[in-house]
Task: inverse folding
């Protein structure tokens, strides 16, 4: 079906318009939204959603969902904390933690591609397993991170700023740009869309579907690992409780608000970043207005449903 | 003259900017089979989907049994109104039982819930009318396509439909199945059911249809009794000109053997199949559905592992473990199932063509997108694909143009061997000639081409040599110069 002009405009700019409208709303309604402190706050929390969201967008465009990202992040944060507590330098501890998180994603991919475990079951299983490991190794407590002895402080993952830009935001943007490049210009990007659009066609076009499935989930593991380090750094502790923080659904929401389809084959990673900002602007904006975080969830829920419902108008018509 | 039960007047429907239907009128009498023909994209399916409540027309009216049907209809309303459509892609719910499929959205209830007993009884009655006897508890997905279609017809009759629309009902049926479908259609005629029959196969029209309406580019060309319409009038009406010579002249520059299968067996699918493909020839595979033709092609392409036997390309043994290997070795496969495994549904023409070419267009991590665009553009022009541009979504194209994209992606890959499985399924007559010319051009460029087709005339018109398969065995091989070729092929295929 050929879309109408208004629809094409909305598809292109709709998410941006929503974001700008929210910013304008909170600038007027909330006192102190446009302060450097608050904007830095927005960027700090957006960074985490951008990291999680980028990984999730790969998975969702390929037609799947990854339920294990928050648990992987928790495991990574706790591993880093324990390694540093044990006397390891920040850089090797970070690298090893990233490898652990990426390996979790790799295992997801292998079991889904080769053992044919349905993605929902596999990533749900990993969600439990990784969260469990994080709880076991930390004896169910948060591990404080003190990197005083190290040349590079662990704080560079999530507490420093460059100008007004928080370090984790810079990390997230670098990761996003790499993801964007992969999506637009590489085989992996094309194959991700192809697998999500029609796996059989992809296979019969010579796409190594198994291998790229593994890569896609590995990518999500890497994204979760980076988010895990950022969170640990920001909190100053490796906390196993990160796995309960609702990040799984938030990442799906960021991608969905950005227009990524749950049935695969459609979506744009740049829009996921906008989606991540929409969520962060709502939460920080409502914070400023004094709305409690439990009530914030209602707003986010409604926004998510509304945005996707509007997205589906055309599809409803054409069916 | 039997009475008119349906009149569609001045129907127009546009999708975005393009007019799919432009002031089309159509009528149907009780007890008639009315053929609806035209090229792909002529508007046949769109017109019928308007009737079946799938689409809302922009203009026009539908009068059914003297009542003006409210235009804001839905499929459910249309069904209640007695209009049922048997789609080209069947609408069976594969995980439900035969019984559940027959009564879906039309369940018989009693106070305590569903009245399965009455439904069973009623289902048996209607199935007897249709002439089938199925286990009502069998999962519908386990049945062959022909039976699934019969379930849909059973469902339609159970709804007391007086209008049944068949959208290319025989495209995936074997010959015997087609015959029993035609028997059924003749019985329904006697009952007074009005039927619309969309097809590309002229022989079928002459066999069972009473009248014909021809559409071209979303407009009426003519409606007439079938006895007044000969092949020539039909063809020129569809094509829009008098140029109706479908098949290009054969080249017959037969050279060396380029591909060979030696004694290949995949247990349970086919056994001991050997054949050679020579440079400059088109090799055809004839047979009924399930004879093992598709499976042979998919084995060459790496989807099945042979239990025995080997493939050779120009004397060299081929080691192919998966389609990934096959594509790297220059083999392409166009699937018989375009929707299920041929297209990337929500993606652009460019991506649909590029997908099989990434191994060529990729440079380190990077895709050479400029080159990709040039190549895709060249394909669009070379294959005369009707599109607004390479970024258009493939599902916005007509079936024939989608098929050109499916073929184009392999031509773009500069293949050595192309396996074409029903390359013109669902493609209209006008566009078919394009396909035949394209295939011929490939052969001239020393690409090996194997064509699998369920249409004997197509194989005879196109191929230099034809292999006949039956029940997983090669049962015959003919040069196209053979006398009475069609008859001989059919005899072998049907084992009579």
Result:
């Amino acid at each position: 079906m050929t879309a109408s002009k208004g629809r094409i405009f909305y598809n292109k700019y709709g998410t941006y318009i929503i974001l700008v409208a929210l910013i304008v709303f909170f600038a007027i309604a909330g006192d102190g939204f446009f302060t450097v402190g608050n904007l830095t706050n927005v960027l700090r929390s957006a960074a985490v959603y951008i990291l999680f969201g980028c990984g999730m967008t790969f998975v969702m465009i390929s037609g799947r969902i990854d339920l294990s990202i928050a648990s992987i992040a928790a495991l990574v944060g706790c591993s880093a904390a324990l390694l540093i507590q044990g006397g390891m330098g920040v850089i090797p501890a970070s690298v090893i933690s990233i490898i652990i998180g990426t390996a979790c994603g790799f295992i997801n991919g292998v079991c889904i591609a080769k053992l044919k475990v349905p993605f929902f079951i596999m990533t749900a299983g990993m969600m439990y397993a990784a969260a469990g490991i994080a709880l076991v190794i930390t004896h169910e407590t948060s591990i404080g991170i003190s990197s005083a002895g190290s040349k590079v402080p662990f704080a560079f993952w999530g507490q420093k700023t460059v100008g007004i830009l928080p370090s984790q935001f810079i990390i997230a943007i670098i990761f996003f740009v790499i993801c964007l490049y992969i999506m637009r210009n590489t085989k992996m990007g094309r194959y991700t869309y192809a697998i999500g659009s029609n796996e059989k066609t992809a296979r019969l076009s010579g796409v190594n579907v198994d291998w790229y499935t593994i890569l896609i989930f590995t990518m999500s593991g890497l994204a979760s690992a980076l988010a895990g380090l950022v969170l640990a750094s920001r909190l100053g502790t490796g906390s196993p409780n990160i796995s309960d923080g609702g990040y799984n659904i938030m990442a799906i929401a960021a991608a969905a608000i950005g227009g990524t389809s749950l049935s695969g084959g459609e979506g744009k990673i740049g829009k996921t970043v906008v989606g991540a900002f929409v969520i962060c602007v709502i939460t920080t904006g409502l914070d400023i207005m004094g709305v409690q975080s439990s009530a914030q969830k209602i707003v986010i829920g409604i926004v998510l449903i509304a945005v996707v419902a509007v997205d589906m108008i055309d599809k409803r018509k054409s069916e | 003259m039997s009475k008119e039960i349906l009149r569609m007047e001045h129907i127009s429907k546009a999708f975005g900017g393009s007019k799919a239907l432009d002031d089309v009128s159509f009528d149907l009498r009780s007890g008639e089979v009315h053929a609806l023909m035209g090229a792909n994209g002529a508007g046949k399916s769109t017109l019928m989907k308007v009737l079946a409540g799938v689409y809302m027309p922009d203009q026009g009216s539908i009068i059914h049994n003297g009542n003006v049907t409210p235009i804001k209809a839905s499929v459910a309303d249309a069904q209640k109104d007695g209009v049922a459509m048997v789609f080209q892609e069947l609408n069976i719910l594969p995980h439900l039982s035969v019984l559940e499929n027959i009564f879906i959205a039309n369940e018989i209830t009693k106070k305590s819930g569903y009245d399965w007993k009455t439904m069973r009884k009623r289902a048996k009655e209607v199935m007897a009318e249709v002439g089938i006897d199925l286990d009502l508890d069998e999962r519908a997905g386990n049945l062959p396509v022909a039976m699934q279609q019969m379930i849909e017809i059973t469902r339609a009759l159970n709804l007391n439909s007086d209008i049944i629309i068949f959208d290319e009902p025989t495209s995936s049926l074997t010959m015997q199945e087609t015959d029993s479908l035609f028997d059924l259609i003749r019985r329904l005629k006697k009952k007074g059911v009005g039927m619309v029959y969309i097809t590309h196969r002229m022989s079928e029209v002459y066999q069972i249809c009473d009248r014909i309406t021809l559409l071209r580019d979303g407009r009426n060309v003519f409606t007439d009794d079938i006895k007044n319409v000969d092949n020539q009038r039909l063809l020129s009406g569809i094509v829009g000109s008098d140029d109706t010579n479908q098949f290009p002249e054969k080249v017959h520059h037969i050279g060396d053997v380029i591909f060979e299968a030696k004694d290949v067996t995949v247990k349970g699918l086919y056994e001991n199949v050997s054949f050679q493909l020579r440079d400059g020839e088109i090799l055809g595979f004839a047979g009924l559905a399930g004879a093992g033709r598709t499976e042979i092609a998919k084995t060459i392409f790496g989807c099945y592992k042979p239990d025995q036997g080997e493939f050779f390309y120009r004397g060299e043994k081929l080691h192919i473990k998966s389609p990934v290997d096959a594509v790297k070795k220059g083999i392409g496969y166009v699937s018989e199932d375009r929707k299920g495994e041929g297209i990337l549904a929500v993606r652009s023409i460019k991506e649909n063509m590029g997908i099989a070419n990434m191994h060529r267009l990729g440079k380190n991590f990077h895709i050479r997108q400029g080159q990709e665009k040039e190549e895709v553009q060249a394909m669009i022009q070379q294959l005369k694909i009707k599109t607004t541009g390479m970024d258009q979504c493939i599902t916005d194209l007509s079936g024939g143009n989608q098929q050109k994209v499916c073929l184009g992606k392999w031509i773009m890959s500069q293949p050595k061997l192309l396996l074409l499985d029903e390359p013109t399924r669902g493609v209209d007559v006008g566009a078919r000639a394009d396909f035949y010319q394209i295939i011929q051009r490939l052969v001239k460029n020393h690409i090996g081409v194997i064509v699998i087709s369920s249409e004997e005339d197509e194989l005879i018109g196109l191929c230099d040599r034809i292999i006949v398969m039956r029940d997983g065995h090669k049962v015959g091989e003919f040069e196209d110069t053979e006398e009475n070729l069609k008859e001989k092929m059919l005899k072998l295929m049907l084992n009579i």
